[in-house]
Amino acid sequence: MPARAGIRRAICIIRALSSAVTDDAMSSMSEDVSSPLRARAIALLWRTLARLTPHRLWQLARLIGPLILTFSRRERDVTRTNLRHVYPEMPARQQRRLTRDSLTHSSATMLELGFAWMAAPERVETSIRAVHGRELLDDARAEGRGVIVLAPHYGNWEVLNFWLSSHFPFTAMYEPPKIDALDPVIRHGRERMGAQLVPTNPRGVASLLKALKRCEAVGILPDQEPSWGSGVFADFFQRPAYTATLLPKLVARTEARVVTGVARRLPDGKGFALHFLAADERVYSHDEALSATGVNASVEHAIALEPAQYQWEYKRFRKTPQQAAQHPDFKRFRIY
Description:
Largest sheet: 7 strands, mixed
Structural class: alpha/beta
Number of strands: 9
Number of domains: 2
Strand content: 5-15%
Radius of gyration: 19 Å
Distance between the termini: 52 Å
Number of helices: 14
Helix content: 40-55%
């Protein structure tokens, strides 16, 4: 019984860390961590974990990931379902291994939040062992263009945010966490290297447009399911996924260059490698559905670097065309 209680506590910790920064994944325990006392405990845990190296944090994740696989049915089942959808030809044994590895990487990401936000900047910078494709960013700015970075939930996107805001004028949308008391902690962590955070509303979109017209970089989450009326259905691994349509609006008004950016965790947690990849050419289409298809293809390209590092426990296919058909604004929910 004590061992099982300890396991539940470890899983609760990971869920609590995740609930502060993600919309859906691993956040089913958010109701249990909403008090200021719990928020202070989470912030203290982040500060403690920030003292560890990425290698040590990876070792912890290797212990916690299998526990989530065994004892946390929700994360396990959502991950397995998503993997069956996107890799239907993959042998069952390989899917089980990928499920385990994905939950381990997601655990590592949550444990690394304190490192990305609170560790000395030189420690975080040193943990970034390589940057591939930086010339895509530099060339766009040399041409007098802004850069839109599609940053999917892959590897450690907070390390990506750290590097981008350290090396470029960088603006990103920000939605306050479910745990109000953690807002200043998270905001400080993301802004400490100079990033400008703007709200997820029309005023925030206007700020993104201004930044792009100044030939700066902006970050967009391409794989977070938008609210009804803010997206279209487009194929993601040959399955319709409701996808935001903000990107074509930004491109049409700024002629910005679009790249996909990820921070891939190196083997054994020995740091990170950043990858900037040219986006699928369809993202530049003024047709929202075709652009959304290009966005999803760009995310697929990044996932192919190492599929286990994608956050498969997010319900990416929650909204369906069948649900859209019953919605009063059905005509807006096109399928490409």
